[in-house]
Amino acid sequence: MHLIDGDNVRISGVRIEGPGSPPDAWRSIPQGYAKGIQFEDKINIEIDHNEFSGWNAAAVEAAGIENTAGPSDRVWQMWTSKVTADPAGLHYPAGSEPVYIHDNYFHNNYYPDSPAPWSSCSLVNRAACTPYYGYGIVASGTHLLIERNVFNDYFHAIAADGCQGSGYRAYRNLVFNNGGVEGGNSVQAFDAHHRRPGDCGGSDSAAGHDFDVWYNSFLYRDWAALYINGTPDVVAVIGSNAFANDRVIDSAVVLGNHGDWGKVWTDGNNLEGVRSWDDSSHHSDSCDFDGDGINDRFLTTGETWWFRSGNRSDASWVYLNTNTLLVKDVKLGYFSADSVRNHVCDVAVLNGSGYKGGTGQYGPLN
Amino acid sequence: MATEDNMRELTLEELRQPANLFGQRFLTALVTIALVGLLVSPAAAQPLNVGIVRSPGGAFDPCLSTPKVNFSASSQSIPLGTSTNLNWSVQAPTGCGYSLSMTVLSRPQIDLSPGAPQDWDLWTVTDVGTLPLGSLQVQPAFNTIYVLVVALGANSSIASAPIQVGVNLPLANRLCGLAVSTSTPLIATQGVVQATGFTPANTPTCRNQVTINANNLAPLLVQALRTPNTTVIVNDGIELDLTPHLGGQITIANGVQLIGGRIALPGKRFQRGPRLFVKPNPNASD
What we know:
- The structure holds two protein chains of two kinds.
- In chain A, 4% of the residues lie in helices and 36% in strands.
- Chain A has helices spanning 24-27, 74-78, 337-342, and strands at residues 2-4, 9-12, 15-17, 35-40, 45-48, 51-53, 58-63, 66-67, 70-71, 84-86, 89-91, 99-102, 105-107, 135-140, 143-147, 150-152, 158-160, 167-171, 174-175, 181-182, 185-186, 190-192, 210-214, 217-218, 226-228, 235-239, 253-255, 264-266, 283-287, 296-300, 304-308, 317-322, 331-333, 346-350, 353-355, 363-364.
- In chain A, the strands form nine sheets. Chain A has an eight-stranded parallel β-sheet with strand order 2-5-12-15-18-23-26-28, with no helix packed on it.
- The longest helix of chain A has 6 residues, at 337-342.
- Chain A starts with a strand and ends with a strand.
- Chain B has helices spanning 4-15, 24-38, 174-179, 218-226, and strands at residues 46-48, 68-73, 77-79, 84-91, 100-108, 124-127, 133-138, 144-152, 157-159, 163-168, 208-212, 230-234, 239-241, 250-252, 257-260, 275-277.
- In chain B, β8 (144-152) and β9 (157-159) form a beta hairpin.
- Chain B is an alpha/beta fold.
- Chain B is 15% helix and 28% strand.
- Chain B is built from four helices and 16 strands.
- Chain B is elongated and about 80 Å long.
- Chains A and B meet through β1, β2, β3 and α1 of A and β14, β15 and β16 of B.
């Protein structure tokens, strides 16, 4: 629907709602399949604090410019081509990433298509549907910083097309368990596709440039949380995520297309087998984090803290902090003067110390 | 398919009605034909004959002659929130016994440059009476195209050439306004405020700012998003149906900031924010 046709654009604080279920939905869109926001070779783009739903192709699709001669867009020139790696991990250029997508709520963007019979294809019978569409965020030959977003009901929450300029930093995202199905098989939540020689040139077993995946929380475990369909040019680093899969290697993180594990690094801090947040060790409904006088749901995934206003179904999860402590390890209450005045909950770790409002740095609460 | 005979019956029935009381069916047909047939060739007023009555034996009907119509706007470019007058004069054919009826049709048109495709198909109809000389004060909230439709009796009408009224978005920074202009012109001259990259420090940024505070301002949203260096504020609770937009993608120009009233932050009362939506095509079938 929206085509960003210039640089220095910010889209913040709106609900952008697509036409919803195909097949009739995309007929109303001249461009075919419905995409919420698209752009190509644009810099200084910020998309934040929005809610995206009903986009049967992609909620946000960012593209670079690449052919068999390689990438030529500005994101590649000023950013992606300068990404390096050493044993300490990936290193990015100083300054802001050209495209920053953060604190958004992506949901109900999964709309499987089916040739016939349509009646057998539905959101609850996804195995009957093919082909499949509905991404949260797509990096098509470009590089993105994707942070603190929430994904629910997606084909892929994040997808990259495998071109040399494709890559992303995915930090602190919250990924629920309603993912995609293809040909009767579940598919990955985060995707790094292999390079198609006909599209971008190069090796078919190559898969993008770099992927830095940290502090994300996945409830999704029907298949891989992250599938890299080949070998990234630089490296993929996966650290300190909370996975519902029973193990990291070959379960939460899967390589395809003869991918080289030597270029896919995982640290020892990824959590495995966190299959549910729906228990008293992970959540609490006893405190108010947005100051409206109604207790909110406080969620701890093992990597990050979140709250949802009044635990309302129409409210999105809001990021609070990056912290491995669980509800059972903390105490909620109105301890600081600020919290008493604003009725905004503090998270105490020890008597007198913790996190004001559940955010920021550890310190005294008074 | 209508025959000449049954068309004549219809028009004779119409003729029994006062000329200034348009039947809804007649007006709908009139609007549709006028827009499709005339806007593609806006250089001059053209006759629009709806249900032509031929006198027996082919006698001349003076009401079928084209009246002289002048239709203009006092200002073709106005600041948002101000008004202008649409002025007309109509000289009916001599000997035509039917009274005049005039209607002003208005439609959003985001891109007013020559040859730009139609952006919207939503038309507003305002009956403006029967005086052959008159004016109508209008306050468009977005770029708008106006057409004057003149009916001579009930069976012969013409539509004027369309006129365009551009709505200039206000500047957010008065200092910039002093340095450049009091408002940012649209259309071709809007390039004066286009960004050339990152703005140097201490230079007032020439930005427009628009607040969307009603559900019927979707055309203003689209126009503002197309205008470089514009801050578009959309209040919480506003619902903007972008389905009627016909121009394909809604482009967002260089330097645009679309800021909605959604609040999902720690310590802040939650607000879902404004809703920008498109609907499935109701005419499509599975």
